[in-house]
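URGENT: need a sanity check before tomorrow's submission.

F., can you look over the Alpha/beta hydrolase record below? I want to be sure the sequence and structure line up before it goes out.
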Amino acid sequence: MSETTGLQQLTERPDARQLSEQPGLRQRGPRRRPLLGRSALALSAFIALTTLAELIEIPGLSYSLMLGTWGLGILVGLCLLTLLSLAVALHSYRADQAGRARMTPGTRLRVATAALLVLATAVTGGIGTAQLSYVTAQGTDVDILALTGIGQAGSAPDLEPVVLNDTETGQLLRAGIWYPRDVDGQRLTAQEVRAAHPDGVPVIVLIHGGGWSNGNRLNPMTRGQADWFARQGYLAVALDYPLSTTDQPTWQLAESRTACGLAWVGAHATEHGGDARRLALVGDSAGGHLALNLTYRQALGTLPTYPTDCGGQVPDIGAVLTEYPIADPVGFHDNPDLVMGPFVSERAERYTGGAPAEVPERYEAIDPVRLLRQVADAGQAAGLPPTLIVAGERDHVVPVGGARALDALLSEVGTEHETHIVPFTDHVFDLNPGSAVSQMWRDRALAILKETGLGV
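Structure tokens as predicted:
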């Protein structure tokens, strides 16, 4: 074959584009990019819809407000995703020979993805700003690092003694004890506490939530707050109480055994460096309900009976500090939320043994607002310990109407109290105990304790 013929064959060889146009031949190259682009668009659309649900009620999605406890971390993550998507979108434009910007394939998908992420970032940032504005307006100096949740989970209790082997429920009830910490966060021994405070330090007793049917002294919210109180110099004690089951309603036993735990604290606080004569109750959700009820029953002189194994008398309650408490058991049962409603109704029925229409007298017996009215009718409302209530305006688990009703009655009867209904805030805002709303609750709790003579 001559040199001229070989050169001609080379120049006539079809290029890749010609090959791709021939039937039966498949073009090689990236084939997954369209799928990747559509997946990114779908994910960003879901993120945008979820953040919009923080503004507009969307069943099944509006619970994203609960993630607001890690708002700073989520916002930073969204900002990074948004910047990356914007960079990819801008890179999709190419200049033609005339210098004009031309879109490459997939540009519209990338631009739409970036726009949705910008929207999500803006909404999340706006909601975070609204929460921070409310919190700082209450005088709270926000710890930015704590907002991330770093170092906020709290340590395990230093001791977990048995309070009661409850033969009636078959449940073993323990207490978690956190000793006071020094300025460096190191645990103090009972001897070291008594050396610095001969009369002992005030005691904070924490009662966990969980719809009366799950959880214990080690709940994340309880543990985080107990550890924080210990770092403020308090002796913190978290109590178990018997959990309800489908076969055993505990609407009476839960209060009885929580009173038992308080009596145990009164009998044993001194050996741990505490002074049970200066005691405050802390409770979240169902724990807040129990804390309120025991406070009012103590004022009425109708505390429930408990086994003699628990110790002596229940100490006087000097303050009651609650987070999103169940202040209206009927309203809790009748929660209208399409997703959470059936779940919480089942918890209420498990606790009481039936629906409000079936056992109305039980719901009346455990209603904090009704008990407070009885205290007021007995002329004891002004002598009640100061009360703190912090709840989310958008609580999907415990309807905020109960907290509003309790606040209104506390104002009417002249009981010292402080209530905060925080905008764009849901249940368990202290799942990250360092969240902005949790920091405000801590700040106000500490102020009330000091004003009441329960400061360290």
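My own read: The first strand starts at residue 93 and ends at 95. The two ends are 103 Å apart (CA to CA). If you see anything odd, call me.
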